[in-house]
Amino acid sequence: MRPAATGNVRILEQLLRAGFDPNYMIGSHSSLVVAILGGHSEAVRVLLDWGADVNARGVSLFARGNSNPEIRKMFMEGLLGVVRCPSKE
């Protein structure tokens, strides 16, 4: 889905409302991974809101080391493929 790659949130939302799959594969990557790789934090949020699979191959890997601080923050907050264990107090 090209809007995920370019960060065009307006078009991305229109496509999702029209029924496009938020887990659409672009080559070997999901739309979510493509948005992460492009550093498009708003596109990432839209895809998450529409149910993109946070456990898709590459999500954690590419989010963890992303140059966009918003995407790294989403990763650290557990929104992008991280399962946090409760602390033992």
From TrEMBL:
<dbReference type="InterPro" id="IPR036770">
    <property type="entry name" value="Ankyrin_rpt-contain_sf"/>
</dbReference>
<feature type="repeat" description="ANK">
    <location>
        <begin position="27"/>
        <end position="59"/>
    </location>
</feature>
<keyword id="KW-0040">ANK repeat</keyword>
<dbReference type="InterPro" id="IPR002110">
    <property type="entry name" value="Ankyrin_rpt"/>
</dbReference>
<protein>
    <recommendedName>
        <fullName>Ankyrin</fullName>
    </recommendedName>
</protein>
<dbReference type="Pfam" id="PF00023">
    <property type="entry name" value="Ank"/>
</dbReference>
